[in-house]
Amino acid sequence: MATITPAVETHSHHDHSHEHGHGHHEQSFISKYVFSTDHKVIGIQFLITTILMLMVGGALALAVRWQLAFPWESMPIIGRLFGLFQTEGGQISPEFYTMLFTMHASVMIFLVIIPVLAGAFGNFLIPLQIGADDMAFPVLNMLSYWFMWPAIACFGISFVAGGATAGPGNGWTSYPVLSDIASAAPGSGAAQTWWLFGLTLVGVSSMMGSVNYMTTIINMRAPGMTLFRMPLTIWAMFITAILQAFALPVLTAAGFMLVFDRLHELLPTSIHSGFFIPSGLVVNNAEPTVGGGQPLLWQHLFWFYSHPAVYIMLLPAMGMVSDMLSCMSRKPVFGYKPMVYSMAAIAGLGFIVWGHHMFTSGMNPALGMTFMTSTMMIALPSAIKVFNWIGTIWDGNIQFNAVFLNCAAFVALFIVGGLSGIFMAAVPVDIYFHDTYFIVAHFHYVLFGATLFGVFAGIQFWFPKMFGRMMSDRVQKLHFVLTFIGMNGTFFPMHLLGIAGMPRRYADPYLHGYLEHLLPMNQFMTISAIIMGCAQFLLLGNFFYSIFRGEKCGRNPWNANGLEWSAPSPPGHGNFDVPPVCYRGPYEYSSPEADAVGQDFILQTSPPPAGVARTAVAAH
Amino acid sequence: MKKFWALFFWFWPLVALWVCAIAPQNNWWFPSPPLSSLGHQIDGLFYLILIIVAVTFVGTQFALGYALWQGAVRTPEKKAWFSHGSHKLEIIWTIVPAFILVFISLTQLEVLAKIRVLTSFPKDVQNAPVAEVMARQFEWRIRYPKPGTQLMTEPRPGDLYFVNEVHVPAAKPAMINLRTQDVQHAFFVPRLRVKQDAVPGLIIPVWFEIEKAGEYELLCAELCGWGHYKMKARIIAETPEQVTAYLQRLEQEQNEDGVADEQASQ
Question: Which residue, A131, A346, A384, B41, could crosslink A563 as a Cys pair with Cβ 3.0–4.6 Å?
């Protein structure tokens, strides 16, 4: 009980802000819905932006798939619509192809996955689940959303800055010197510089979010919300925020170094460094380079951020899925503390595995051995989490709705993505698989199979809290089936393509005799991808329709335990009508305490019934 | 409908396994058996991991499907199992995978050293590269030393040049020096299971022992610009005598000034 005392301060602070919140009731439309400082509005803004960006990234992916299935054939619709590639007769040109996969990855990673998890769900859920009235720094929070738009604008400009068919084409990893010297590729000129500006701005946005999340979670928990009574979503967001805070500065610094290397190509400036350019390179018959830089430096710096970023793109979904699986199985999370510790272990180990992206890069082989062992070990906490998720469902009273199905798919597909990772951790085997479709299969199973399915579930699960209405479960189930089948049809064969030795980022792999026979398989994958892409309109339609026409619901439509479910749906400014006090952990489904009140759940805010009370609370 | 979903989660792993099982006979597998000495070891390690992974895949997917099935067939009145976890289970499923993972990494070390550590290369190739392979957008430039001399880091008069075709002796280890003239590339020979990035500013030795004479595709595996996909070249493995003959032919062609021919025909 001693843990409650320090939080009393937060309580009074809460009361104060609550009154403060009332003062804001006659806000203008602009300050309420556009430049809002309310974490819920910001979360929803992030969510809608990222869902729209998901469609953009998906369209780019379909164009990639088109070229792989029907190489050099005229693009349907797009080719004619924009009158692009007229000189190429409606074909995708090879440099346009490099732009397609570069921007597909950039949009999906920086404008969809990272902001949907931390930006949308982080913002919406953190104050609600810990019982705070808002984020610690509401204005900073607003800025973190509005810095996304300059980033989106920079990415947008990068599409056209170098000419209509020469967008940034150096991959989302942008390895120098290809990305460093303007003459190296059509997309390495102004387009690449704008891309780097976009990347930096996304980083600024994430950093503002991360500072806010850490502060809020540490300082603003409701009375009784001890660290080990926090839902795993909050633990995940907390650990993610720490990862971002420590890893992002490295990427930002590396980004600036690359910008300084290239700025003279965009502006008349004397800034002309050579961090990543060794001397004496003759690129495309240009003058030999002057410098003394080292391209491998970029790879180290880039992956020092981007490997932890892989977990930034996964951990919050892991946390959310743990919450939802527990609720839909009407059972406590199996092994709550091991779940927390394994997330912490993933985050810690995540900082010392970046070298596994560089096994073929020519770095010191002794480093390869070290990175291999640490990479193998990071599979361990992931395995522990999978076992615990299965344990959570085990002998549960499963509610077979689309939320549950998406979460179960998360577990099933994460297993595939995790297991294929073991091949890549083993250096000799990775040497064969590096930069083949095996890798593409692996990270799509993790990012799409796991994270996006977790997001689909999360959207439906917290939708009632966002809008006070339910999404149609039937439509979500249809969306689930089509997406699941399309996803596996698209990405599972990629494992086989990788084993067959098909390199990634090839505009036309069939130029090479030993890959010719893989064309039919690629056509099958493209058809699956189109099905999957179309299925997303079901989600989009269901989402926007349900905002206005969905079935209305009360505070707690899922009979869940978390603090957010004790607030009104949707919560007003300041969130809680009754200041929440937390009496127990978030997963006490089917507990004796719940039995005592005749239901299979018990809100974290319900005062313990007399008798059962003391022991249950003291147990924590 | 509940049972349908449980079966759904049992069904798709079976489809996945079936696709993998029929993959080799449909040519959706390795382009050929490994044709280099290291390739055999790499494939051996691949199959070792494949077996471990397949067993884990089947076990976890079956368990997940079973948990769903349990949930599908139970009566709604039956209460869920109220449990916060099991210390014993956590310890088991931490220690067992940990041992397996450490075991996997230990099995890799020897092969890794052979592939990458210069001092573990076969003795007779360590300081004797047969050629320098210089990648550039979008071709491979090969430089052989003048017959009878050693390959030097910088080009020397008398060096022989060719594009997109590397001749190396078969059935014995051969080493090349990999460089790039412009951006990053990667030297990828799928049938030999060889891959190494060519990094601007570095000279990286790569060795392989091709078992049989023949032609092997050489591709670029690191994005190097718009023409990345078309850096098509081949490695030709032949007997040492044939390599010598090839180099002599190349030397003749290269020294051909057209004058000798004219004189002969007059």
Answer: A131
Using CA atoms in the order A99, A101, A106, A107, what is the torsion angle rounded to 10 degrees?
100
CA A527 to chain centroid, in Å, comes to 25
CB contact, 8 Å: B42 with chain A?
yes
Q: Residue A496: which of B28, B80, B115 has the nearest Cβ? A: B28
3-state helix, strand, coil in chain A (%, to 5): 70, 0, 30
Q: What is the pTM of this model?
A: 0.92
- Each residue of A35-44: pLDDT tens digit? 999 999 999 9
Is residue A611 over pLDDT 60? no
Please report, as a single letter, which amino acid is at residue B101: L
H or E element at residue B169: strand B165-169
Residues of chain B in contact with residue A484, where contact means CB-CB under 8 angstroms, are: 12
Buried b (16+ CB within 10 A) or exposed e, A419-447: bbbbbbbbbbbbbbbbbbbbbbbbbbbbb
Rounded to the nearest angstrom, the gap between the alpha carbon of residue A553 and the centroid of all alpha carbons in its chain is 29
- Cα three-residue angle A337-A338-A344, rounded to 5 degrees: 95
Question: Token pair of A451, please?
Answer: 């994270």
**CA distance linking residue A91 with residue A128, whole number of Å:** 50
| Complex prediction ipTM | 0.94
Residue of higher predicted confidence among A83 and A220: A220
The whole-number average pLDDT for the span A389-396 is 95
CA B221 centroid distance within chain: 10
Mean pLDDT of chain A: 90
Q: A422 and B195 in contact by Cβ < 8 A? A: no
| φ, ψ at B198 (rounded to 5°) | -100, 115
Q: Taking CB atoms and an 8 Å cutoff, what residues of chain A touch B30? A: 499-501
Sign for the pseudo-dihedral over CA of A296, A107, A217, A600: negative
- Using the Cβ of A300 and the Cβ atoms of chain B, whether some distance falls under 8 Å is answered with no
- Beta carbons of B67 and A493 less than 8 Å apart: no
- E strands, A90-191, in order: none
Nearest CA in chain B to A185: B225
Pairs of CB atoms within 8 A across A/B: 319
Comparing A138-142, A162-166, A276-280, A441-445, which segment has the lowest mean pLDDT?
A162-166
